[in-house]
Amino acid sequence: MASSLSLLVIDDHRIFAEALCLALGLEPDVRGVATAHTGRDGLAMAAALDITAAVVDLDLPDLDGIEVVTGLGVLRPAARIVVLTAHARPDLAQRAVAAGAAAFLPKEAPLARITAALRGQAGDDPVVDLGAARPASVGRVGLTPRELDVLRQLAQGRDAQQTAATLGISLYTARDHIKALMAKLGARSQLEAVVSATSLGLVTVGSRY
């Protein structure tokens, strides 16, 4: 049987990170998943924990994600580092692989693709997937412009009350929009709605890249 995985997810987008950790934690060979929301916290956790692999977002609030990849390679040279980014560009992929990443994947990559990259063997060629350039699937899902506005607020971690204040609508209206977009996305929770919307390319995490 393959050895078990001890994972570290470094991503400042808390909703996405939470969803990813929950999904990874259900994998039978994963014995633990730790989460950090800044590059420095991620490096500190990597130094303290016996991790076998890490998922790193490039867009972190304190450090360049490439620096974090390099630091993880120094701290845990045997760990596989998978970059998961909303900005899957060839130049960033080249930099990430040069820094030691074992894989460079878009955030909309299927979970099976991510876990396969985390389970890869030492000596494997780096996996680079730039994703499919496609427009947001707003029409196919059937979201209205206002529902999309609300969805973007949820993707930034705002609750219904904060969303209402930001968009200048009532709390009741915000809740109605949330119920409607959840139904259209087939989601049972706001978290599921954001994860589904991310995979469809409807929302992305803001970036400096």
Provide the spatial order of strands within the biggest beta sheet: 2-1-3-4-5-6
What radius of gyration results from the CA coordinates? 18 Å
Large-scale geometry: elongated
The CATH superfamily name of the largest domain is Response regulator
Beta content comes to: 5-15%
Q: The biggest beta sheet, please?
A: 6 strands, parallel
If you consult CATH, what is the topology of the largest domain?
Answer: Rossmann fold
User: What is the number of beta strands?
Assistant: 6
Main traits of this protein?
209 residues, alpha/beta, Rossmann fold, Arc Repressor Mutant, subunit A, 6-stranded parallel sheet, 6 strands, elongated
Write up what this structure looks like:
The chain folds into two domains: 5-128, Rossmann fold (3-Layer(aba) Sandwich); 138-200, Arc Repressor Mutant, subunit A, CATH 1.10.10. The protein has ten helices and six strands, in the order E-H-E-H-E-H-E-H-E-H-E-H-H-H-H-H. The chain has helices at 14-25, 39-48, 65-75, 90-99, 111-119, 138-141, 145-155, 160-167, 171-185, 190-200; strands spanning 5-10, 30-36, 53-56, 80-85, 103-106, 127-128. It has a six-stranded parallel sheet, sandwiched between helices. The chain is elongated. The mean pLDDT is 87.
